[in-house]
Amino acid sequence: MTIEPDLPEKALKTLREFVAGAVPDDVEVTYNILEGVPHDEIVAFATNEGTDLIMMTTHGLSGLEKMLIGSTTEKVVRKSRCPVFTVNSHLFGKVE
Fold it and tell me: Which tens digits make up the pLDDT trace of 28-49?
């Protein structure tokens, strides 16, 4: 059940816009929008697809904020069977 019914379509539109400006035309891109607990869905998808590498950004949470909110990236790193490459999102400017 999606709280916001058009959320998957909005997410796909945002992904396509990002990829259009960041990925060369000769690179094949596929899109997958999943619902569920993010770290579980990411790890399950990577496992089912035989993924060689997961690449994720980090947002630099620490201390109390990290303890209360948790870190999707950290959970993926701990649970994934394949390597996870992490990049600090602040290196790319403002990320919301």
Answer: 888 888 889 999 999 999 999 9
